[in-house]
Specification:
single chain; alpha+beta; 3 domains; TIM Barrel; eight-stranded antiparallel sheet; 676 residues; Immunoglobulin-like
Length: 676
């Protein structure tokens, strides 16, 4: 049965209720459930605006139109989406005879199948709720982008299978941009998978009460992404310190060590905006305070750094050790995640720990109050929200239970709520333009000031290649603030020539990322300086720009100054991200959608609208091919040589140069005057 309400189509059959309604410009929200009432959570979506749709009934079903998108619901419940030109954007995959209806003498107008496969399958789980599978027809020629961060080199995700689950270095942000002119948000935080097959597209949730997705139509990738931003939110305006260079390593062990590094940067007259105190500077996991033995005067430290014009960022973990001073109180109040089986130990990392439950508003407030008392009151205004997936020693997603429900049903939203807790706590203190570094995200995380980095990735050229696709797809999924550990996290010795080459190529790439941040666990590691608290965890080798030899140092300094000179340009890109959700780094097709070849390039990108970046992604490369999109002329940023768009050119890649091209006529201070 189909009911056409003022602003919603309702289809019901055999216990299923389906809603289709307008949500944002040129968008529709689609929900279905077999529960007695439609669940009310909006998840990633902002509350719906008063968007008026045009709804009509037909003999074949009902039609809803919102701007450029139109959906048809057949009498059998099948959904098909069209753009304003009548082209099919997305069509449910139905293989049964429900749609096969015609009168004697008439020619059938619908496809029939004996497979008996439904597009929306709610398969009951013994004891309650459902495993959900949603099926769509697949266009083999379609290209798919977005979906968050996966450690693989493919920008186009067609033919890929993606786990919808959060892991260290994996962030599922389930919004995709299609080359067919639509965007699709899987608005369900359950653990599952998405399969963009050649013959079928499927979305799966292991445990859920509802099918919930949002779809929009647009004439360009930019229009689609901006419409998605309108319904999920945008980042705040990036503070000035976010535009510069961030220094970090695993790990500065004492207050004096960190201050001496900051002083050395200033003695060398090097631009630095942020310096970082990494993990295990605390007395215990879950105490959320400095160990006074190694960090005796945090206020003096913060004051000295501010005098040098450097912001301090401090690592926060969500883990709470069984021996923490806060463990018993948090357990009593229900502020810790629970296990459905076994002992309450979620992570074995220098102690038996579990995580605070970021889905519980009371737990978020509790942790923020501790952080305010022990960090924020010293003037620390940036936090590194590590382990935000959260990371488990074993990713047994069916084991953990949160305030909002089982992990398998809602777990992917944890990093969003982790960021939200800090954002709202800092906002309550009057802070504006909030940014916190987070190791994971979900759709909508951006509106809570989440700067996501790509996690503990391998220090290798293969690891570097993976970051290009990860950063670009994160931007298309709404996570416009993104960064990576320059040099990679795991491994790499600063004294080895091979690693120095990798570090420099990564450093050049990092210069043209939304945030430029060096970090890593370098070899060899030192011995711990104590046996408890902030002393019993060792430290990696030096990771400052002068740690890689004289040649590397000069190259690093060169790019640090390029970053400084580009601050006005970067500031404009941050403004566009804040106002419209525009990715700061984006694939070539974002700015050149009419250039078919631009949709094929996966190892180059645009840094804002005017700078084309072609990272050096293989060891020992002396040249590389760069495709210059048609529609404009291009100028080599190093040589000044001009080229027509629509062609590939071979470019030299000496160790001190990353291939860069600027739109002809645009003046940007990349090369120093003497280099022109």
């Amino acid at each position: 049965m189909i009911t056409c309400m003022q602003n919603r189509i309702i289809y019901s059959y055999d216990g299923e209720v389906l809603w289709v309604e307008p949500w944002g410009p040129n968008g529709l929200r689609v929900r279905s459930t077999k529960c007695p009432q439609m669940p009310e959570e909006d998840w990633a979506l902002l509350p719906g605006t008063e968007q008026q749709a045009e709804i009509t009934s037909t003999e074949a079903g009902a039609v809803i139109r919102n701007g450029k998108i139109r959906a048809e619901v057949s009498s059998g419940g099948k959904l098909t989406f069209y753009n304003q030109h009548g082209a099919v954007l997305l069509e449910e995959y139905v293989r049964n005879r429900k749609e096969y209806k015609f009168q004697p003498g008439e020619r059938p107008t619908s496809f029939a199948s004996a497979l008996d496969i439904d597009a929306r399958e709610f398969k009951a789980i013994l004891g309650g709720d459902y495993t959900l599978t949603v099926r769509f027809e697949s266009d083999p020629e379609e290209k798919i982008y977005g979906m968050g961060q996966y450690q693989q080199p493919h920008l186009n995700l067609k033919l890929c299978e993606l786990e919808l689950a959060q892991r260290n270095s994996q962030a599922t942000v389930p919004f995709m941009v299609s080359s067919k002119g639509y965007g699709f948000l899987w608005n369900n935080p359950a653990v599952g998978k998405a399969v963009f097959g050649k013959n079928i597209t499927t979305w799966e949730a292991q445990s859920t009460k509802i099918m919930d997705y949002w779809i929009c139509a647009g004439d360009s990738p930019a229009e689609i992404v901006e419409q998605y931003a309108a319904v999920t939110g945008t980042v705040p305006m990036m503070p000035e310190y976010g535009l510069g260079f961030w220094q970090s390593k695993l790990r500065y062990q004492t207050q004096e060590e960190l201050l001496e590094v900051a002083r050395e940067y200033k003695r060398r007259n090097l631009p630095i905006s942020v310096i970082v105190i990494d993990f295990f500077h605390w007395t215990n996991q879950g105490d959320w305070k400095f160990d006074p033995e190694y960090w005796p005067d945090p206020q003096a430290m913060v004051d000295e750094l501010k005098e040098m014009g450097i912001e301090l960022m401090v690592s926060i973990w969500p883990t709470v050790d069984h021996t923490s001073e806060n463990y018993e109180e948090m357990m009593e109040k229900g502020f810790l995640i629970r296990m459905d089986r076994g002992q309450r130990i979620a992570m074995d990392s220098r102690g038996n720990a579990t995580h605070f439950d970021a889905t519980n508003p009371g737990a978020r407030e509790y942790v923020c109050n501790k952080v305010k008392q022990n960090y924020y009151n010293y003037g620390i205004r940036i936090f590194w929200l590590d382990e935000a997936e959260p990371e488990y020693t074993y990713y047994d997603f069916d084991l953990y239970r949160y305030y909002l429900g089982p992990n398998v049903q809602i777990g992917n939203i944890y990093p969003l709520l982790y960021a939200r807790g800090f954002y709202e706590g800092m906002q309550a203190e009057g802070q504006e333009n909030i940014v916190n570094l987070v190791r994971c995200a979900w759709a909508g995380s951006q509106r809570y000031g989440a700067l996501v980095w790509s996690g503990d990735v391998h220090s290798s050229f293969k690891g570097l290649r993976n970051q290009v696709a990860a950063g670009l797809n994160m931007g298309l999924a709404g996570i416009t603030w993104w960064t990576t550990d320059i040099g990679g996290f795991h491994g790499g010795c600063p004294d080895e020539p091979e690693f120095r080459e990798l570090f420099l190529r990564w450093f050049q790439y990092g210069t043209f990322c939304p945030v430029m941040r060096v970090h890593g666990s370098r070899d060899p590691h030192s011995e711990p300086i104590g046996k408890k608290g902030g002393g019993f965890v060792n430290s990696g080798a030096p990771n400052e720009v002068w740690s890689y030899g004289d040649e590397a140092y000069e190259i690093c300094v060169k790019y640090m100054h390029i970053r400084e000179r580009l601050k006005p340009y970067i500031r404009e890109q941050m403004k566009a991200a804040h106002e419209k959700g525009t990715p700061i780094i984006r694939p070539l097709f974002y700015d050149f959608p009419q250039d078919e070849r631009a949709w094929e390039v996966e190892d180059q990108y645009m840094f804002g609208p005017d700078i084309l970046v072609a990272p050096v992604l293989y060891e020992g490369m002396e040249t590389r091919t760069v495709y210059l999109p048609r529609g404009t002329e291009w100028e080599n940023a190093w040589t000044g040589e001009k080229f027509a768009g629509g062609q590939a050119v071979e470019v030299a890649t000496p160790l001190d140069q990353i291939p860069l091209f600027v739109r002809a006529g645009v003046k940007l201070p990349i090369a120093e005057p003497e280099e022109n």
